[in-house]
Amino acid sequence: MALSKLNIIDGIIQDRYIDDIPVKLQIVKLMRKRNVRTLIKLKECIGITNHNTGNSAPSAGDELHAKWMQNVENIDKQYVSAHLFVDQDSITQVIPLDEVTYNAGDGKGDGNYKTISIEICENGNVLKAEENAKKLNAALIMTYPNLKVFKHQDWSGKFCPRVILTRNGWDKFVEDIAEYVKRAEGKTAIETKEREMVNINSDIYGYRTAVDGINDKNRVKKLPKGIYPIMIKHASGAWNIGKGYMYWINPKKI
Q1: φ and ψ of 176, to 5 deg
Q2: Which of 18, 42, 49, 225 is most buried (CB neighbours < 10 A)?
């Protein structure tokens, strides 16, 4: 898969993958005094604020932090939140992107009220987690043009994201994000021009993998009629169609 604009509905990422990174949803349920869920509309987004979790425990990946966010909401003792957690192998969204989060330590300032917040886990392969975070930043920038990449330190002075700052790696982090965007947008322009299109004139099922598509197992969604770009033609005979949220299909069923 390649980086592309995200499909977002009501602040929730619909894509199952960003590039090759699985995206999971564990949206925090509202409880008590809005310790995590502010329910305040993020009316203007100017950028993305990047953090490190500050938790190097072996189990402290994106999934565990998502559970922690729900516990913070349940316990009703502190106010803290972030939209997304990313580790070495996946991304988990816990707050809608169009909702204010308590992430930047600047009260009602622009960090909390005008940026999407990303927490980079430091429990395993930190460099891989950072690479995944770069791709996530890039995908968000492609979706919401003109976003600027910020660090937590920019808003409250806190030494965060600490892992990146400790090795003086912030400038490289931002440069790499820009390069991901540049490559993806250049590739997208070429693909849009050269992609073979397929006309689906009757409803068929989409599948998560090529093998599932050929064997008619684990159907994901019934695809509506329409014209779709063919992204990949797999050796098994299955085709990967669509952009953003992509599906495998058996072309013999068209």
Answers
A1: -65, -35
A2: 49
